Amino acid sequence: MARAWEEYKFGAAQAERLHVTLNPKGEIMIGAMAYGKMGRPDAVVLLYDRETDSIGLRHTHPKTPNSYPMVTKKNGRHRVVRAARFCRDYGIKFDRLMVFNAPKIEGEVLVLELREMRPYRQANPAIVAAGAERPQT
C-alpha cells in the first residue's frame, strides 16, 4: 500500500515563535522569547485598542504610574503580568487558558490580538485548516 506522507511544516523553527497566553484569572504569561524581544523589562504599561480589540504591553520603568511588574515564575525564563483588573474593566473574560496565535512586537509594544486566540490545547490552526486535526479523545 502506498503511503500519502504529509510534511510537517512546524519544525524546530517553531521555537522562534513568540508565546503568550491569558488565563481565566487575568494573568498574561509571556514566554522567554517574547520577553527577550520586549527588551527584558521589569515592568509594563497595559494598553487597549477598542477598534482592533487588542492588548498592548509597553515596557516601562517599575516606578511609572500605572505600571505592572513583570513577575518571575518558577524557572525564571518567562514572565507574568497580573492584569485581572485590566481584563475586568475591558470585559476580557475566558473560562480556560487561551493562547495568542500571532503575538508580535510593534515598535516598543507587544501586541496581542484578542480576535486571534484559541484555547491552549486546541491544535495549531494551520494544521486544522489543512484538515489534519486528530479527533479529541
Describe this structure in words.
The chain has helices spanning 32-37, 84-89, 125-129, and strands at 20-22, 27-30, 43-49, 54-60, 67-69, 71-72, 79-82, 98-100, 104-106, 109-113, 117-119. It is mainly beta and 137 residues long. The longest helix has 6 residues, at 32-37. The chain is globular and about 65 Å long. Mean pLDDT is 85; it is low at 131-137.
Short overview:
Helices cover 12% and strands 32% of the residues. With 137 residues, it is mainly beta. The strands form 2 sheets. Strands 6-7-2-1-8-11 form a 6-stranded antiparallel β-sheet. Strands 5-3-4-10-9 form a 5-stranded antiparallel β-sheet, with no helix packed on it.
What would the keywords be for this entry?
5-stranded antiparallel β-sheet, mainly beta, disordered C terminus, 6-stranded antiparallel β-sheet, single chain, 3 helices, 137 residues
Record field, number of beta strands: 11
Number of helices: 3
Structural class by helix and strand composition: mainly beta
Determine the N-to-C terminus distance: 28 Å
Shape: globular
Average of per-residue pLDDT values: 85
Sequence-ordered SSE layout with sheet pairings:
Blueprint: E1 20-22, E2 27-30, H1 32-37, E3 43-49, E4 54-60, E5 67-69, E6 71-72, E7 79-82, H2 84-89, E8 98-100, E9 104-106, E10 109-113, E11 117-119, H3 125-129
Antiparallel strand pairs: 1-2, 1-8, 2-7, 3-4, 3-5, 4-10, 6-7, 8-11, 9-10
